[in-house]
Amino acid sequence: MSATASLYRLFADVYLFPEANRIQSFISGELQRNFEKLAGAAGFQFDPSYSLILDTTSEVFESEFIALHEVGMGGAPCALHSGHYMRDRSKTMEEVLRFYRFFHFKHESTTDHFPDHLSKELKFMAHLEGQFGAAELSDGDFLSPLLAQRDFITRNLNSWVGELAAFIENRSSISFNKETGHLLVEFVTYETQRLNQLADQFTESPEEYKA
Amino acid sequence: MSEQAEKGQYRGVDDIYRENWKWDKVTWASHCIDCYPGNCPMRVYVKDGIAWREEPAAVFPTIEEGVPDLNPMGCQKGAGWTRTLYGKERVMYPLKRVGERGEGKWKRVSWDEAATDIADSILDAIEEKGAESVIAPSGCNTHTWGTVGRQMFMSSIGGLTMDVNAEMNDFAPGHYLTYGVFDPVSSIDDWFHAGVILIWNGNPAYTRIPHYHFIAEARYKGADIYTIAPDASPSAVHADYHLGIKPGTDAAFALAMAQVVVEEGLIEEQFAREQTDLPLLMNPDTSRYLRESEMEEGGAGDQFYVWDEITQKAVKASRGTLFWGDVEPALTGEFTVDTIAGPVKLQTVLSAMIPRLQEYTPEAAFEICDIHPDTIRKLARKIAERPTKVVCSLSNAGKHYHGDLIERSMLLLFGLTGNWGRKGTGVQAWTTGMFDGWFTVAMKQQRGPAEVAAIADMQDAMFESAKQQDPTITRPILAIEMAKMSTSSGMVPPFFFWFHHAGCEGAWKNRDWHDPSMKRSFEEYFDEAVDENWWDGVDYPRKEQTPRVLIECGGNVLRRTRGGSKMLLKHLWPDLNMIVSMDIRMSMTALYSDYVLPIANQYEKIGFGIPSTHTMNLTFCDRAIEPPGEAVNEWEAFRRLSEKLEQRAKERGFEGYADARGGEHQLQNCHSNFTRDGLFVDEDIIADEMIRDSAMLGSLPANASLEEIRRKGYFRWEGLGVSARALNQATDPQPDETFAPYRDRVEKGEPWPTLSRRAQFLIEHPWFIEADEHLPTHKNPPKIGGDHRFQISSGHNRWSIHSLNTANQLMLETHRGAPHVVINDQDAADLGVEDNEEVRVYNDQGEFFVPVLISPSAQPGQVVMYNGFEPYQFTDWKSPNDAEPGMIKWLHMAGGYGHLKYWGTQWQPCPVMRNTYASIEKIQLSE
Hints:
Chain A is mainly α. Helices cover 69% and strands 0% of the residues of chain A. In chain B, 31% of the residues lie in helices and 15% in strands. The radius of gyration of chain B is 28 Å and the shape is globular.
């Protein structure tokens, strides 16, 4: 798996419901270390002052996760489903699901992971990144996953994670949540630019790119 | 670029849309919540485990030749249900509070952990304060599983369930006083038969969206549509006439029309003689009927008399039939009758009523209600002359303090003009019934028909036995008598709970907020009602039975309760050791709970629409998709609690006990009783049993089954079944006719379930006589809330079902998207407030802050505050309920007289909110 794909997966894990071992990896600094390692390998430059170490108890973290992302008056204030940031969630879910089906991405319609859940969408990006890498190696159709990555991140993730991070900034009392939110935005922005450039580069001059 | 894509290649986003989606399944659906009467058949389209959309199915056939069919049924709430299904407000996992109540701090827990903690709290409560300290508000979004699951659970522990009709204030006390039941309900298509439609205390353009077309169609046919409302309501816009009545004066208006009918000789005399107590003889000095016990030694106290114009004698009024045979009762007149005590001068009830009506000539009434005398006369003549009329009262008159007087006056007008028991006539309330399997499934020990057959046989035997004692008794009346005796279920009228424990006592004791004809203090009447045992068996919880556990299922007590969430949080919440909300979403009550248990929504469980004669159909909602997370249906939720309760009772050595009402309970086998040793667990099996049992008891087709309703989507009622409410609709459903209740009374002379066995306008109870309300009259609404300039009226809004859908973005975008009050433009100018400016609405009870919508549709002095919004949608989480004391009328605590006795959803005091007085002030912003 490429460093970029792993980075997507790392972010995906941050936004899954915090099981005990996952929280422990936040507290212990394991997330920070993994992130720094993968970001470097993926070429993602970020402000070194970001701290991804959780400095509160697992109880407080879980409670805030629920209050931010799962329930609240009139709905979770920082919902993790992209459809909640769009005009019509059903349309969003349909498009996301069509992407998943097209690229044979296994979607489990259980637990908190509706198809438009952030972690699911990030994992799909990792899935496409993997397909892209595999196609490159096998001289296959790498253009399909590449263009899909570009379109998916442009139409979906890049259009709402900024809003999510802003909500978290306003609502959260835990710096870890704010920091990961901002970093996610930076990463998605970076990836959007990277994928657009890559796609443009290829579609304008495919032979040069391939060379 | 995408045009160049080969199969399987992606070159642009349109490529992903090339696949032609095929639905995995299309299922029947409805929204089995309290958007009464609901029952809109829908189709839901499912793919990949997601319900993508729904649409009205429009499958109903024409029932009666010449009458429009019910199609299409549905509204924007139903058509947007998937938005709620996938809304941000869903709760998907059991949550345990980890912060202060209301702080919004939660921890996910397993069902097992939650159930263990709740079970222990229940056992602790029973040990400390008794079983009555476990309280379940009723909630009305409990279909199909919540009602029966909760009932079984609460019965097993001996806890108390609050009566839903008082909670939602939909009781119609005047109907009950007159008819002995509150809930006549015609089918919606019967509206088409009306010649005059009175939209009175209702706003069907908002609240009856799928049904409004019958009003429009009746109008095309020639019916005159009147909207009688203080404001130019949305329904007024579509009416032929809008009568802008002064708030709370509807009784004077109705009595004025009755006066015209009498004055102009427009009474339908045979109808009035047969159907009503108007020809019965009464003593004007005592305001009591002449009784057999006054005529002969050992005579009955409930045998009354009329004056026979043929024999010129007082003769007994038959209690077994409304028909008079050879007797010709005088409707009016004064007569001297020889009683045991000597000759007594008597008069008919109508004769006693006439002088009272003279106080309401159209000219006199105009001074009270602001309706021009000519209009009153014209409408009265129409009502008397046209063969058919409908009133869309929709239960709302009862939301006035003197709603009983309004309803009794309306019924007097109808009783004089032959306007019930015939197609296109009558008043409306709400009812349920027919779907008897809903309840028999809780009584059976085995699957299959045997026990239901035994229930039917037992009912036959009881009827025969009752007839031995009283040959005049009918099955509908017996069903009510049985219901009145059944106090062991634990369902109680909640006014004792509210008075002793919820904080209502303060407001209710405020004499200034009651009618001046209340001669003594409220607590004296309260104490007398208790001391006289008028509420024996249901007067719980008592003062010493401090509530310790509250289980909310399908309701939202902090949103709904008059007096407001602040009152409950102050007075009730501190006493509670455990608060549980079973809900699909984080409601206001859920926020302040200790545990929130996730409940499956519509489409995620089997459901049936509220069984009602309104729609005449049992509509089916299938389990189209699986519930998200760990949500389960309400039956399963209560089963899990029951299972844990049994386990913990065993582990703690919790022995059998008796509740304060004498019921014996043994929790060490409560789960095996709940499931009948595992026979009743599976949703499909239980639903199938419910349907088959109902078929066996006559309300559904003989071949009815889950399989059959899955194919067809609905069943039309074929009979009324066996429940008291349904039987007292007193009309056999016909496959090819609209349904009009009380036809058996008119066509067959079947007696009414009242003391007099007739529609009763004389209520002899001493409290009513003391208040001069023994006969219908008008009284101005008391100054509830204090002496303030504005009167708050209310009503259901167009955009939600109570507080369901209030967070639905689609619904919010169809109006201002937030709570608001409508006030008159002149009032706004006086107050110096701009449209959409937030104002403070306050009175002596409380306050709330809300933006104004300025419109001349509101009368000067009127404030229209549509309900349903969650308190958290208001500034400081103060809602209109905080300013509505929820007064109850003292007379409604009366008992010990004829039919004035509690049974489920029937006679009981209910809080009112119409005509609450308040002031409005501009908010002065500090610099």
